[in-house]
Amino acid sequence: MSAPPALQIREANAHLAAMHRRAVELEARLDAAECTVRAQAERLACHDQQLRAALEELGHAKDCEIATLREQLMTSEAAVHNLQATVRQRDDLIGQLQLQAELLRDVCQHRLPLARLLATLDEAERLGSLPSRDPCGPSPAIVSTNGEGYLTGPGSI
Prior knowledge:
Blueprint (H helix, E strand, L loop, with lengths): L5 H122 L16 E2 L5 E2 L5
Antiparallel strand pairs: 1-2
Organism: Echinops telfairi (Lesser hedgehog tenrec)
Protein name: Vimentin-type intermediate filament-associated coiled-coil protein isoform X3
């Protein structure tokens, strides 16, 4: 076999040098890509850890807010029960006061006729036409009106 011509050797050497450069370039790009992937993986892991911590913190805050709202609900329910009891007591008091007001209205309606009757009895006693209850003792006190239809004297209203 004969030696290949110098031109072929030069071409082959040039081709090998070009392939070697291309291999080095590809290895450099691969190294850069691997660094990029590692950096992205680290950032993603860090971000994932931050998100997990934020999610845990959010869950804790949610639990605290739920506990606070439950406490407020219990306090509000107790206040409602107290207010309902107060309303019942006041309703009872209003009922009692309405009965008393009705009695006072009745008394006020009968006051003037009663005052006139008492004035007539007083006049009759002064004239001596009514005998006293106890002939030996003083006559009972009679309540009279003051001229405006209002009672005066002992036990006046």
